[in-house]
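re: ur question from yesterday

yeah so i grabbed the chain u mentioned. its 256 aa long if i counted rite. heres the sequnce exactly as i have it in my notes:
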Amino acid sequence: MYDMATRRRALDLHASGLTLSQVSRATGISRYAIRQWASGAVPSPRMTAECPVREGLDPSRPRAEYAYLLGLYLGDGCISEGRRKVYALRIACCDGWPGLIDECQRAMSAVMPHNKVLRVHAPGCTSVVSTSKHWPCLFPQHSPGKKHLRKIALDSWQQEIVDAHPWEFLRGLIHSDGCRITNWATRTVGGVKKRYEYPRYFFTNTSADIIGLFTATLDAVGVQWKPASRSNGGFNISVARKDSVALMDVRIGPKY
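ran it thru and got these structure tokens back, copy pasting raw so excuse formatting
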């Protein structure tokens, strides 16, 4: 006999894409038992709480963490349907930024605290994964097809959260599809060529709708921006003015 937490963890692992054998090796549970739970032959434990969207309007829920996770999802996230209408939220994170992976996992755990959060490793990147029947409720932007080929708009309750926590939303977007870099230029002063360095932020995405959400939120917090050229398609937004960069350094900062 296995307790509910053990059975739930095994089913979550299976729903995330692992085979019965892989789940068995990871948990020590027999393949037969896992197959029985997954097939529904034996009743399995699942969340029966109300849809988190209704709870999402409750101020007691972690709205700041949700705003950050929303930014990550719009940039580098996807939701895929698994067995028995259980969905896996995956956020792809570059291994060069271990702090980002940690923050992504913390935000995902805060937003869906009753579900396990796993790390799935691949060459050069780590996907932070959590399974739930409710991820499409929390991210109604989920739909078949690539994000830049379909309409992306926030529901009213999502916009309310972004309005309350704009910097967390911007931070998630920058951490997914943005960066902070140092540019340099030369200028001749008094016959001597001098090199000047200045930081700037970039955000790049192929969805005009996501770009619109990003720039509208920048406007809301008083950050000046401008479009920048991009040779291989998509949209590129630059924040280069000294005061705006300083503001973003205080509230966002570089990835780590």
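noticed a couple things. The two ends are 44 Å apart (CA to CA). also Residues 43-49 have pLDDT under 50 and may be disordered.
anyway ttyl
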